[in-house]
Structure formats: structure tokens, C-alpha cells
Write a structure and sequence with these properties.
heterodimer; A: about 250 residues; mainly beta; B: mainly alpha; 6 strands
């Protein structure tokens, strides 16, 4: 009788680091030793968030390679015979809004077969002309992304127009850097053969948990891009990419 | 007891009348009014405490005893208690709670809600569901799980599997439960949707908010599916019901989060909302903003539009235009039109003052109109085999609704602008139709000629023209176009309507225009219209499928034509009625005509046109009665026919009236109440004749009243109800007597007597079986009273009828243990006593009663006395049989009534009779069953009588009547 032991990694391609970098660690005593009366006891507490050494506090962020997380742990030590109690709870950190005014940077775009790159057979492509604009690529994270897209004409009916929000995480380390682009939201703004020459609104609310201000540090970067994806009825896929800069005001 | 000797007391009726006539007392109207004591003249505002210590605060103007109803409640009735309570509430609530509330609501409503003059969505939905139906098979495709199984959505290439899963977390409760239901009938479909509605509520109730949201998202997705397109409007109705439910649930949930410590007022502002509630609300909006597909994102956000009120003041104002613009992304124009209708619907509900979005929606709709003729739609229609006109009608509910919202309290210039815009559009028939449906009828009516012009210009192959004329007609039915244009309008409209081929389409449209015709034109035009309808509906018995519409035509005509001579002089009216060939419908129509006739025909009529037509209609109703007809139905029909008969009068032409009754009898022989009425009518006719002749009939009129009597005499036996027969015999006998038809009267009364034995012991009264005894007693007493004036028949013996009646009474099988027979005997005594007077209490002019025939002949009197003695003998015998314990109470009562009769009508000066009365008094008191109060009163009365002249002998009697104390 033989015994085999097998180890499987959940994600073989994931880069594993040595462990999290601690940005902050502080301890306070919220209540002195003593007896807590029966029933519900509420103990108010507060403490300033002070960084450890020369580290910077980043906004809470949950990504693929990068996770910035803040947790509170409360320990209740008890006498010998009773077990100590402990609870964990995540809290969310938002940066102080930047004082500087964000300058909107509107972008106009025109998409025709000729403007496309990265194409296999240009001759097979039907004719179309799609115009539009984004009101800003410098976006305030709490404000929606807005703009308009107009199908001026198209030989093949449109099937769908979508907005794809992509997050790009770049991690630098000794061996070089790793880059991972993730779609974090995809919403459809047009369905079916839309009326030509009628402006269709571009509108996307940035999802709260998956976005943060664009972040550039020595170790890693978190950046965002928007793709305007036009699907034609013959399943041709036309994508126009715009890098975004998110900030909190 | 020895045999009694009867002698009637002599009466002087005139003197008695004089004596008993009360003195007129002057009434002082100043103060006193019999109704006044219960009038509350002063209601103090007082908390309605019901403690006994405080006395009633409602004082009355007189010292009369307090109203028993108010005294029950310690003087304050519950209604005034409420009034008092609300009056003492803080002044903020104004002067009465309820009116204050209403007043406040009203003020708000002007801003925040639409008025009652806005036809709500709820009244449309039924109509849409009924109209847009299909026999095709439907399918529901629900992806309750992740979208992984679906064809890879475009753009997914760049998405990592993990994130996708995370993104769709909210879609992911029942992992991968994709349900596709195929081959559903329309009813199945509706049921499934209702099930979803239920599971939404259940999920919500069990705190599965995510599942609830998922259900709503999946349902909204169904709205992008336009297969079986003719069902789309109904699908929209069903699914938006769910969305409405969801919107309500979310709103209520957040609302209750703020209801601590006290509920939010209806007019709350952002400041009243706590942070938790705001956060929850914001969460909902974030969740919805991340819904991938356009249509669900749009619909679900629209469904919770109202929740913006929790977040900020301008939320709704900003959201509506955004959602309006978002609809432009919907490629299918039908789907977009309905999405707009939904947005307008929630917009109207939440913020009706935001008109701009409504208009924007409409203009966007117009902008996308060209898509209808585009390739995508044409291909789709070809594939589904749907014709363009049918396809266009699918838009109607949505566009009607949008326009209705726009037109609500809108200024005229805006409407004019809308109309102008429609004119310039292709496919404008559809828009035109909606404009006519949605805009105020007054607006449409004022421009009716314009509209007709536009309708004529419309493309023949597009929207069906009869629908356009139908919509125009509907407006013109409630608002009037300029007078000078009316005839042209009618002519133009009818020119088109009459060309409609399909009978169903034709009648739907014609039915609407009947109203306009009736409203403004005379019978001539209406007649023409009726003729046209008959022409269209007769071939292939097309009317069979159009009874509701045809009935509606009749209803409309009846609403405008109350003059039946005009109505029936329309040549085509009766032929029109002939189209109602289904019995139930025909009777229904006849009834509605009769109801109007009874309500509006004020004057009696002899108009042959009316009579013929009405007889025809009544005959139709009568002939519908068969063995299966319900009693209630028969009664209702009979009432209507009676109503007609009562309106018929030939004035002084009595003979014709009688022959009308003869005809009516033949026609309505199956409805007994009608026959009864006819007999009454004829009796009335006889009395009317008598009145005209001032009591002296000529040879001719004598013959006529005899004819009337003959009519009654031969009609009565055909009635099945015994009491109807008895009463009518008696009544007709009285009428005959009044008209000096002695032998006829005799015949009636004899007939009545002869059928007495037929009276059953119990009869059915209002469906319950009841003893007939009391009815019979009533009748007999009534009959006896009549017999006083009926002279004896020369060929029969003295008191022939009285004896006949008494014989029948004796032979009748009365109920066991009943005193009825003896009671009749007791009642006969006063009659006999009255008959022995020299001058009778009442007589009939020109009829010699027995008083004149016999002139107080002693032989006659002794006959009467003998008869009385026999009766008394019988009564006394009966009293003896009641000596057993259990009947003592009856014995006492009977003895007491006989005592009363003897004292009142007998001559108690004779010893024997006097002794008998005293014995009877004693008998009735013997066992203590006599009520003392009653006896005391009787004694007092006798004492009073004894003071009258000729009655002194009673003094002696009184002394011998002892009151027995009950032991």
C-alpha cells in the first residue's frame, strides 16, 4: 500500500511575494482591566492613523497583484479559565481629496475602418463612421465618466456598444515587472441596431470597490483605461482605447 | 249556560260621530314642534369622555325626555365626539382633523402628484392585456446564474475569469440555474410572470435582496426579446408590474429605515433621512449602475427613481434626462418606445412637474421613427409574418401614454407644436392616432376638420384608417366641434367608415360615431346611420359577433332620445332591434329600452307608434319567459311591462283602453303580475267612467262598466295565487257594486266565497312557507265589511252571502288548535249588529242596501238575531272545549273579545245578555290570564260610556264586573 501526496497550486501563474509590506501598526488600550457588567457594553474609541517610519498610507484597494488593506483587531483578554476573545474588521481608508483642481481633458474620436490598427484584413471590413467624445479623461472618481457616441453610418447593423473599464496593475520587483490588465466593469450603452446620427450617451459610474485614484509608487502602479467597444452584427469587434487618470477631489 | 237571546244595540251613528269628534285645539307653532326635542341645538366642544359625572353637553330646546339614542351614549354621539376631539387638537391640524389633512394633501398634490383628471396607468393595463394577444408559443429565458454559459460577450477577451466571477457575484445566487421555458401559451406566460412576481416578494420578505434584484434584472431582460412581437405590449404590462413591485419594496424599505423614532412624513426632505438609509440607498444605485446590459440597467433604475428623494433634492430632476438619453441606445424602436412609456410613467408618478423629460422623450421618439421603415424592422416583420398596419398598432399604447403625459394640463401652444411635428413625419398616422387619443377632446374637437384632412392624407398602407376615425370619434363624443362643421365632419367620417370591409372593424368604428350623431343631429341622420349599420352587419349574420357593440349603439341612442315617439318613428330602429337574435341579448336590449321608457316617459300616451313598438318590445320580453326563467327575472320583466301599461292612456276613449287591455291580456298571459295590473287598470277604468258620469250611468256606459266587470271576471280565474284571486274578486265586486252592477257584484262575491275552501293552510311568502291563517282572517274581515252594503239577492234567501261565507268558514279545515274559526264568528257579530240598524253606517250611492230592501222588517231582524244566537252558541261551545289547562290562556282571550263585542254591539239591557257578559268577564279573569292593565282600562271605558245618555244601564253592569287580583 502506497501513499501519495500531491500539491496543487490554485493559480500556477501567480507571482507570490514574500509577504505583505506593513504600512502601519499601532496598539491602543480601549478599556482598562476590570469587570465588564453583564449585557451589552459599548466602548467608544478613536486613534490617529500614523504611518510606520517613512511609509505612505495608500487608499484601500483590492486588486489582483496589489492589495491594500487595513484591519482592526480587538482582543479581549480574560482570566485564566475563559478564552480570550478576538474580532477582526476591515476598515476603508480614503485619501484626503486633492486640493488641486482637475482640468478636464475632453477627447474627441472618430472611428472608421481606416483609423483601426491591429487588423488582419482591412478589405473585409464593412464601412462605418462612428464619432464621439469623452467629456474628460482626467476623471474624478466619485463622478461618472461621461461623453457621447454617434453612429453616423454603418453598412452592417450594430449589435452592441459597450464601455469596458480596465485596470492595469504593474508590479516592479527585482526580476523585472509584471503587468496585469483586468476588466473591472463592462456596461452596455447600446443594444441592437441603433438609430443613426442620434447621439448615444456614454455614462459610467466608477465601481467603488474596484477603483481607486490612479496610483504610482516605486513598487507598483495602478492605472485605468476605458475601451469603447462596438460590436457589429457580423461579430466584428471594434475597440477604441483611452487611458484615464482617476483622482479624488 | 242557557241559550242566549241576541238583540243588537241600537246605534245613532251621527250622534256618536258628533260625540267622538275631537275638539280642535289651537296649535301654538312658536315654540313647539314634535320633532324639536331631539334636535341638538348646541354642541359644545368637549372631549368625548364618557364618564358619568359630566352631564350631556348637548342641550335641547325643550324639556322633553332626552332622545333615547343619545342618552344611551351619555349625551354625546360618536360622531360629535370625533368632531369635538378634532376641534380641540392643536391648531396646526386646522379645524377638523380630516379636512385639514385633505387640505394639506391637496396643496401638495398640485406639485407632487397628478390629479384625478389624469387617467392612471392601472386603467390602461387591462385594456392592453385584452387587446394584444397571441396564439403563438412564447418562451421565457432566465439566467439566474452567471453568464458564463452564454455566448461569450464581446470584450470579454481581456477579462480574467476571476474578476468576471466576482463581477457577477450579484447574479450568482443559484449557481448556474438557467431556466428556459419554451412553448408557453399566453396564459402560461402570464402565470409564470406572476410566479416571478411572487418569488420577488418572497425573496424580499426573506431578506434575500440580491435574489430579488436578480429576478428583476432577469425580468427586464425579457423586454429586449421581440419574438412574437404582437404580444409585446402585453408582455410590457406584465413585466412592468414586477418592476413597480420592486420599486415599491425598495422605497418602503429605505423609508422604514428612517421611520425611527417616528415615520417620515410624505413630504420628507433629504435632511430627514439618516446616514444608514442614505448609504443603503446609494448602494442600490451603485449596484444598478453596474448592471451589464442596457435594458435592465435602465428599467431597474427607472423603477427605483423615487428613491432619489432620499439622496438629494435634485436627484430625480437629473436622473430623468439621463435615463431619457440612455434610451437612445436601444436599437429596436418598439422596445425603445415602451421603455420611454415606462420612464414617463414613473416620471409622472414621482415628478409630474418635470415636463421637459416628457417632451424630450417624445422628440427622441419622433427622431427614431424612421427606423420603422428601415431594413432591420422590415426583415423582422417578414420573419414573423406581421403586416405593417398591425405592427404599427403595437406602438399605440406606448405613444398614447407618452402623449397623455405630455398633454396633461399642457398649454395649447405646446399641443399645437406637437401636432405640427407629427404632420411632418413619415408614418404619421400612428402619431396622429395617438395625438387624438391623448390630447384633450376639446383640443381635438376644435380642430376636427384639420384632423380629417390629415387622416385623409395618410398613407393607405400604413395605420388602418378606421382606427384613426375611431379615435377622432371618441374625442368628438365628449367635446363638440364648431357647429358649422359638424355635418361635414359626419359626412366625411361616414364616407370612410362605410367603406370598411371587415364587419368587426366597421362596427367598432361605427359604434363610436353613433354618439356624435346622436349628440348633434336629428332622428333623420341617426336613422341613416342605423340603416348603414344594418346593411353592414346583416350579411353572413355578422351581427352575431358584434352584440356588445350593437348594444352600445342602442345605449347611446337611448341616452339622447328620450322622446319615444321620435325614437320609434325612426324607420330602422325596430329592424335594428331585429339583429339581436340571441335571446338573452335581445331581452337585455328590450329591458334597457323599457328602463329608459319608464324613467323618461312622463306623460301618458296613446301614440300608436309608441304603443305598437312598445307592445312589440314587451312581447319580446314576455315571450322570453319559460319554465327555466328565475323568479327574480320574471318579476323584473313583469315590473317593466307593468310600467309600460301604466303609461298607456286613451283619454276619454275608454272603450279603446279596454280593448287595449284585452289585447295586453292575450299578449302577456304568462306573467301574473301583469294580469293583476290589467285587472286593476280595468277596475280603474270602470271607476273613471263612473266619475265622468257623476255616478249615473247611461245605457251605454252601463253596458261598458259591465264589460269591464266581465273582463275582470274572466281574467281572475287564470291567476294562480289564491290571495290575488280573492282580493281581486272582492275589489272587482266592490267596483261592480259602485257601478250599480248588482248581479256582477254578486257573482264576484259568490266566486270569492266559493274558492275559500281552496285556500291552502300554508303559502309561500318571499320564498318561505308561512301559515295562511292571518292572510285569510284579514281577507274575511275585509269581506265582511263589504257585505254590509250588498243587498240580498231577490231569488236567494235572507243574508244569503253572509250565511254562505259562514258555512264556508265552518267547513274550512282550519289548523289544529286554532281559534280562527271562532274569531271569524266573533267578527261576524258586529256586521250582523250593523245590519240590524235602521240606518246603515255606510251605503253606496244608487244602490239599495238591505236597510232599504227590508226597511227594518221584524222578520229580517229576527233572522239576524237567530243567526247571532247560533254564532254565540258556537262560540260558547268552543270556549267550553278550551277548559283544559293548556288552553286556558286562549279561553281567557277569546272570552274577553266576545265580552267586548257583546258590550259594544249587543243590547245588554236584556237580562240574559247582560248576565252572559258578566259571565264572560268572569271567565276571562278566572285563571288570571287577563292583563290587569287591560281590564282596568276596559272598566274605565265602560264607566265613561255609562255616563252617556241611553247607556245608564251600564252603571249597573260595571258594578258587577269585579277586578280579580291575581293570585
Amino acid at each position: 500500500m502506497s501513499v501519495t501526496l500531491d500539491i496543487r497550486l490554485k493559480r500556477a501563474n501567480k507571482v507570490y511575494h514574500e509577504g505583505p509590506i506593513q504600512l502601519i501598526n499601532s496598539n491602543i488600550e480601549v478599556a482598562k482591566a476590570g469587570k465588564i457588567p453583564g449585557g451589552k457594553t459599548e466602548i467608544p474609541f478613536e486613534f490617529p492613523l500614523l504611518t510606520k517610519g517613512n511609509k505612505v498610507l495608500y487608499e484601500t484597494y483590492h486588486g489582483v497583484f496589489v492589495n491594500i488593506q487595513y484591519t482592526l483587531r480587538c482582543d479581549l483578554r480574560r482570566s485564566l479559565l475563559a478564552k480570550d476573545l478576538s474580532r477582526n474588521c476591515e476598515f476603508i481608508v480614503h485619501c484626503q481629496p486633492q486640493k488641486a483642481k482637475v482640468v478636464p481633458t475632453p477627447v474627441k474620436f472618430t472611428i472608421t475602418p481606416d483609423t483601426l490598427q491591429n487588423m488582419r484584413e482591412r478589405s473585409l471590413l464593412p464601412k462605418f463612421l462612428i464619432r464621439g467624445h469623452l467629456d474628460a479623461t482626467n476623471c474624478v472618481i466619485s463622478q461618472p465618466l461621461t461623453g457621447e457616441v454617434v453612429v453616423e453610418n454603418s453598412d452592417v447593423p450594430i449589435k452592441s456598444i459597450e464601455l469596458q473599464l480596465v485596470r492595469v496593475e504593474t508590479c516592479g520587483c527585482a526580476e523585472g515587472y509584471a503587468r496585469d490588465a483586468t476588466e473591472i466593469q463592462n456596461i452596455q450603452i447600446a443594444e441592437g441596431d441603433v438609430c443613426h446620427r442620434l447621439p448615444i450617451p456614454i455614462y459610467m459610474v466608477f465601481p467603488r470597490l474596484f477603483t481607486c485614484p490612479t496610483l504610482e509608487t516605486t513598487n507598483f502602479k495602478v492605472e485605468f483605461e476605458i475601451n469603447i467597444v462596438i460590436v457589429l452584427h457580423d461579430d466584428h469587434l471594434i475597440t477604441e482605447n483611452f487611458p484615464l487618470k482617476l483622482c479624488r477631489v | 249556560m242557557a241559550a242566549v237571546q241576541w238583540r243588537s244595540r241600537e246605534r245613532n251613528y251621527d250622534a256618536e260621530l258628533q260625540r267622538w269628534r275631537p275638539e280642535a285645539a289651537a296649535l301654538d307653532f312658536g315654540d313647539y314642534h314634535p320633532l324639536k326635542p331631539i334636535m341638538v341645538t348646541d354642541t359644545k366642544t368637549r372631549r368625548g369622555t364618557r364618564k358619568g359625572s359630566t352631564s350631556s353637553s348637548s342641550s335641547s330646546s325643550s324639556s322633553a325626555p332626552a332622545d333615547p339614542l343619545s342618552s344611551m351614549l351619555d349625551g354625546t354621539d360618536p360622531l360629535s365626539m370625533f368632531a369635538a376631539a378634532s376641534a380641540s387638537e392643536p391648531p396646526a391640524m386646522s379645524h377638523s382633523g380630516s379636512t385639514g389633512e385633505l387640505g394639506r394633501k391637496k396643496k401638495e398634490n398640485e406639485e407632487e402628484a397628478v390629479g384625478p383628471d389624469f387617467e392612471p396607468w392601472s386603467s390602461k393595463r387591462g385594456e392592453i392585456l385584452a387587446r394584444f394577444t397571441t396564439t403563438e408559443k412564447l418562451s421565457i429565458n432566465l439566467f439566474m446564474g452567471s453568464e458564463r454559459g452564454k455566448a461569450p460577450s464581446p470584450g470579454s477577451s481581456a477579462v480574467s475569469e476571476k474578476v468576471r466571477t466576482r463581477l457577477e457575484e450579484l447574479d450568482d445566487l443559484e449557481e448556474g440555474s438557467q431556466r428556459e421555458l419554451l412553448n408557453l401559451s399566453q396564459q402560461d406566460y402570464a402565470n409564470r410572470i406572476e410566479e416571478l412576481n411572487q418569488s420577488l416578494k418572497e425573496a424580499w420578505a426573506s431578506d434575500q435582496k440580491v435574489k430579488a434584484l436578480k429576478i428583476v434584472i432577469q425580468c427586464s431582460k425579457l423586454l429586449s426579446d421581440t419574438s412574437v412581437i404582437q404580444f409585446y405590449p402585453s408582455k410590457f404590462v406584465l413585466i412592468t408590474d414586477i418592476l413597480d413591485t420592486f420599486g415599491r419594496l425598495v422605497f418602503d424599505r429605505i423609508w422604514t429605515m428612517c421611520s425611527d423614532p417616528r415615520p417620515l412624513p410624505d413630504s420628507f426632505t433629504v435632511e430627514d433621512v439618516n446616514d444608514t438609509a442614505k448609504e443603503t440607498c446609494l448602494n442600490w444605485f451603485f449596484k444598478i449602475a453596474s448592471i451589464r446590459e442596457l435594458l435592465p440597467r435602465l428599467y431597474v433604475e427607472a423603477a427605483i427613481l423615487k428613491c432619489n428623494r432620499f439622496l438629494n433634492k435634485s436627484g430625480i430632476q437629473e436622473t430623468l434626462p439621463r435615463l431619457t438619453a440612455m434610451i437612445r441606445g436601444i436599437g429596436d424602436p418598439l422596445v425603445a418606445a415602451y421603455a420611454r412609456a415606462y420612464l414617463c410613467r414613473v416620471g409622472m408618478e414621482v415628478a409630474p412637474h418635470l415636463k421637459d423629460s416628457l417632451n424630450r422623450n417624445f422628440f427622441d421618439l419622433l427622431a427614431t421613427f424612421r427606423q420603422i421603415s428601415g431594413n432591420s424592422i422590415q426583415k423582422q416583420l417578414l420573419k414573423q409574418r406581421v403586416e405593417v398596419p398591425e405592427y404599427l398598432t403595437l406602438y399605440s399604447p406606448a405613444i398614447n401614454w407618452i402623449l397623455q403625459c405630455i398633454a396633461y394640463r399642457a398649454p395649447e401652444p405646446l399641443l399645437t407644436e406637437m401636432m405640427e411635428r407629427c404632420k411632418t413625419m413619415a408614418n404619421n398616422a400612428l402619431l396622429l392616432n395617438s395625438v387624438m387619443r391623448a390630447f384633450k377632446p376639446e383640443f381635438v374637437a376644435a380642430r376636427a376638420t384639420d384632423f380629417i384632412g390629415m387622416i385623409k392624407d395618410c398613407d393607405e398602407s400604413g395605420f388602418p384608417k378606421h382606427l384613426l376615425f375611431g379615435s377622432l370619434g371618441r374625442s368628438l363624443a365628449c367635446a363638440d366641434p364648431p357647429e358649422s362643421e359638424r355635418l361635414t365632419i359626419l359626412n366625411e367620417a361616414w364616407k370612410v367608415i362605410t367603406k370598411v370591409r371587415s364587419p368587426q372593424d366597421y362596427i367598432n368604428c361605427a359604434e363610436i360615431w353613433v354618439e356624435f350623431t346622436c349628440r348633434h343631429f336629428t332622428k333623420r341622420e341617426v336613422n341613416t346611420v342605423l340603416a348603414d349599420i344594418i346593411k353592414h352587419m346583416t350579411p353572413d349574420r355578422a351581427f352575431e359577433d358584434a352584440y356588445p357593440q350593437l348594444q352600445s349603439v342602442i345605449r347611446k341612442i337611448l341616452a339622447y332620445f328620450h322622446d319615444f315617439s321620435v325614437l320609434f318613428s325612426m324607420e330602422r330602429f325596430l329592424p335594428f332591434l331585429d339583429m339581436f337574435q340571441k335571446d338573452s341579448v335581445r331581452v337585455e336590449v328590450c329591458k334597457s329600452i323599457m328602463e329608459v321608457f319608464i324613467k323618461h316617459q312622463v306623460e301618458l300616451t296613446r301614440d300608436p307608434v309608441i304603443l305598437n313598438a312598445m307592445l312589440h318590445i314587451c312581447k319580446t320580453m314576455h315571450d322570453s319567459v319559460n319554465a327555466l326563467t328565475l323568479e327574480d327575472e320574471k318579476r323584473a320583466l313583469a315590473q317593466l311591462i307593468i310600467g309600460f301599461i301604466r303609461m298607456v292612456s286613451f283619454g276619454r276613449d275608454f272603450e279603446q283602453q279596454l280593448s287595449f287591455c284585452v289585447e295586453a291580456r292575450a299578449t302577456f298571459c304568462n306573467l301574473e303580475p301583469v294580469l293583476v295590473q290589467l285587472i286593476h287598470t280595468v277596475n280603474q277604468l270602470a271607476m273613471e267612467t263612473r266619475r265622468v258620469m257623476r255616478g249615473s250611468h247611461s245605457r251605454k256606459t252601463a253596458a261598458f262598466v259591465r264589460a269591464c266587470a266581465a273582463y275582470s271576471f274572466i281574467t281572475i280565474p287564470s291567476l294562480s295565487s289564491i290571495f290575488s284571486r280573492l282580493n281581486l274578486y272582492l275589489l272587482s265586486g266592490q267596483v261592480a257594486l259602485a257601478n250599480q252592477c248588482l248581479s256582477q257584484a254578486d257573482a264576484f262575491l259568490k266566486a270569492a266565497v266559493s274558492i275559500l275552501p281552496e285556500v291552502p293552510r300554508s303559502i309561500s311568502v318571499e320564498g318561505k312557507l308561512r301559515s295562511s291563517e292571518s292572510f285569510l282572517m284579514d281577507f274575511i274581515n275585509n269581506f265582511l265589511a263589504t257585505l254590509l252594503v250588498v243587498p240580498d239577492h231577490p231569488e236567494h234567501g235572507v243574508l244569503y252571502l253572509v250565511r254562505g261565507l259562514l258555512n264556508m268558514v265552518q267547513d274550512y279545515t282550519w289548523e289544529d288548535n286554532s281559534d280562527a274559526k271562532v274569531r271569524v264568528y266573533i267578527s261576524a257579530l258586529p256586521l250582523l249588529a250593523a245590519m240590524s240598524q235602521e240606518t246603515y253606517l255606510y251605503t253606496i250611492p244608487k244602490v239599495d242596501s238591505n236597510e232599504t230592501l227590508y226597511g227594518g222588517d221584524p222578520k229580517f231582524l229576527s233572522e239576524i238575531n237567530k243567526l247571532c244566537e247560533t254564532l254565540i252558541g258556537q262560540i260558547l261551545d268552543h270556549l267550553k272545549t278550551l277548559a283544559r289547562d293548556e288552553s286556558l290562556r286562549r279561553q281567557s282571550a277569546l272570552a274577553f273579545s266576545l265580552f267586548g263585542v257583546l258590550l259594544a254591539h249587543g243590547d245588554v239591557r236584556t237580562n240574559k245578555l247582560s248576565q252572559l257578559t258578566i259571565n264572560l268577564w268572569n271567565l276571562s279573569h278566572k285563571h288570571g290570564y287577563c292583563e290587569t292593565r287591560f281590564s282596568v282600562r276596559t272598566l274605565e271605558y265602560i264607566k265613561y260610556q255609562a255616563q252617556q245618555p241611553d247607556m245608564t244601564h251600564l252603571t249597573d253592569t260595571v258594578q258587577r264586573l269585579a277586578l280579580q287580583s291575581r293570585t
